[in-house]
Specification:
The chain has two helices and five strands; from the N terminus they run αβββαββ. The chain is of the alpha+beta class. The chain has one domain: 2-Layer Sandwich (HIT family, subunit A), CATH 3.30.428. A five-stranded antiparallel β-sheet has the order 1-2-3-5-4, with helices on one face. β2 and β3 form a beta hairpin. It is globular, with a radius of gyration of 14 Å. Bound molecules: guanosine-5'-monophosphate (5GP).
Length: about 120
């Protein structure tokens, strides 16, 4: 069950430019911007413009959009973190999701540990 009330999040205000963000890429389907609290030298988020709360809320109808987010993350990751990078999608409470607007974290610029805590 969803633990968060549905509706607009801070990311909608970033999409509408009501709130400023360090935007690094934008197209008709998605937006990428640097995370306000970076956990690595490179840490940005790729989000769909359409509000989908969690990855769990997607279906086979979203294949194209989900593939697009992955390919944008891939291109920006390759350009900004040539040594490699990590994609993270936190889903729901136990996944430590805090903003209920689907987002792909791209982290790089340092050696990552595994497994994550
Ligand atoms: P989650 O924990 O939901 O996977 O990640 C949400 C991410 O959004 C966090 O890494 C957090 O630092 C980032 N974030 C939250 N609010 C803002 C904001 O207003 N601007 C930016 N650029 N990032 C934000």
């Amino acid at each position: 069950a969803q633990t968060q009330t549905p509706g607009p999040t801070i990311f909608d205000k970033i999409i509408s430019k009501e709130i400023k963000a360090d935007i690094i890429y934008e197209d008709e389907l998605c937006l990428a911007f640097n995370d306000i609290a970076p956990q690595a030298p490179v840490h940005f988020l790729v989000i769909p413009k359409r509000c989908i709360p969690r990855l769990q809320d997607t279906s086979s109808h979203d294949k194209e959009l989900l593939g697009h987010l992955m390919l944008v993350a891939r291109s920006l990751g390759a350009a900004r973190a040539p040594g490699g990078w990590r994609l993270v999608v936190n889903n729901g409470r136990d996944g430590a999701q805090s903003v209920y607007h689907l987002h792909v974290h791209v982290l790089g610029g340092r050696q990552m540990g595994w497994p994550p805590g």
